[in-house]
Amino acid sequence: RWIERTRLDDASTVLRRALAEGFFREGTSAALFHDLGRVRARFVELETRFPAGTLHAVAVKANPVVEILRALVNAGAGLEAASFEEVRLAIAAGCPASRIVFDSPAKTRDEIASALALGVHLNVDNFDELDRVASALGNTRPPPIGLRVNPQVGGGSIALTSVATRSSKFGIPIERRDEILAAFEAHPFLSALHVHVGSQGMPLETLVEGVARVHSLREDIERRVGAGRIQTFDLGGGLPVAYRPDDVPIPLSAYVDALKTKIPGLFTGDLGLVTEFGRAIHATAGWAASRVEYVKQAGDERLAVIHLGADLLVRRAYRPDEWYHEIAVLDADGRPKAGPTEPVTIVGPLCFSGDVLAKGLALPCIDPGDFVVIHDIGAYTLGMWSRHCSRGLPLVLGYDGDTLSVLKNRETPDDVVTFWSR
Ligand code: LLP
């Protein structure tokens, strides 16, 4: 079973340790915390649910902090890269090239050549890219190379994280079945199939149906070009997590059981498997704490101004109906606050009115100097950081049992000047 999100009491304990160890001195007003023990536990659950030997390539884009990637690699993970830069991050984290999976719909000729020279897995997004790979390969022995197929199963409840609609920009639409079979015939180096259906908001049935549709190509391909040709099947990621208290999470076990039932040929042992989970590994392992800088009255609303906003949570600001994070308050010493609740609106520091994290939340009375805790920010937050107003990236701390360590220093004003300079 996935472990639930960090409890506020545990966040309080970790925050108090961070305060005692001086991490909030010298201009630090906010920090992100990543529970590395929890990340490892999730990874172990992946390993136990899937057949031994499955390559679990965790999506770098979900959380690109190198020390977090390193913790995963040390636990036995591979890494999935959505850009050549992410391939480099994976290497920097100590991941062997043979355990890196490079997916991107925009690979350049140079990136393809470099990826082939490194020996990373390559998932080809379209037929033109396939031609580029064929000409880059020459006579060299290829690493595993797959074709990404869009199963065209439709979207989930969140359009922007659904990638298997009929005209999605990712992969080759499965309706071009004949051309897909011809491509396998023309290119003997193609040895894998790749599918990724979507992310948050995908129903279990849609995820499984997407994988099943692409897996059904295996038989057609092998009938055409010979048995054993498909050596690897990459089923992507996409397991949603429970952000709201009343969200019902899809347990990994339910997903794996549904895959087994619907696609008996998937787990038979003669097919190498790859997964690319991101959100399910990281989202609920991360939380943020920001000092409250000001509390002010605006019309009928009490506003608490904090140091994290739409820069960290861009989706929440622009699509407040679709995205949600539990928010709580701790006092200036990091202890839970008691007392009657009153409505407060939590706003970020950026220069637009949409920079709101929660409206009219019922929380114990917030004072300047208190900490606002934002839960479940471990995936697709820092990696989607917005440079609006040029505020520096926050400090990232990791903890594992009793040890607390810096995973990434905060960006200082000098660092930001460097970033924006020639
Ligand atoms: N593999 C591929 C090819 C992907 O495109 C993705 C996510 C994953 C794996 C990992 O999926 P996960 O297990 O994390 O759901 N910007 C979005 C997130 C987009 C995720 C897209 N692809 C957000 O606002 O949260």
Automatic annotation (TrEMBL):
GO terms for molecular function: diaminopimelate decarboxylase activity. It comes from the Bacteria. SUPFAM superfamilies: Alanine racemase C-terminal domain-like, PLP-binding barrel. Residues 37-282 form the Orn/DAP/Arg decarboxylase 2 N-terminal domain. Pfam families: Orn_Arg_deC_N (PF02784). Keywords: Pyridoxal phosphate. This is Diaminopimelate decarboxylase.
